[in-house]
Specification:
Layout (H helix, E strand, L loop, with lengths): L3 E3 L1 H17 L1 H20 L5 E2 L8 E5 L2 E8 L2 E9 L4 H7 L2
Parallel strand pairs: 1-5
Antiparallel strand pairs: 2-3, 3-4, 4-5
Pfam families: ParE_toxin
Protein name: Plasmid stabilization system protein
Keywords: Toxin-antitoxin system
Amino acid sequence: MNQYIISTEAIRDMEQILDYLANTNINAGEKFLEEFSKKCRYLSQFPLMGRSYREIRPYLRGLPMKNYIIFYRLTEQGLEIMPFIKGERDLEAFFFENP
């Protein structure tokens, strides 16, 4: 599996994070984007390397990145990067509100 798709929700999340970092530390924003891209490439090569979150959603997997968790799922087309959120949030509540 070498292909991954970034959902519109994940793009929105990335834009918000990068907007914030652009106002505080442009280098941190660049590093964040580089690390995100690197994690996505790793996941496309090793899709089971992330933790299962089946207690929240049966298909849900996640991989930590700094203070965030990159959520994803495996599909017939490849890997779909889903919204990623801060790890300290109530994950069950987030996915209940955002099915």
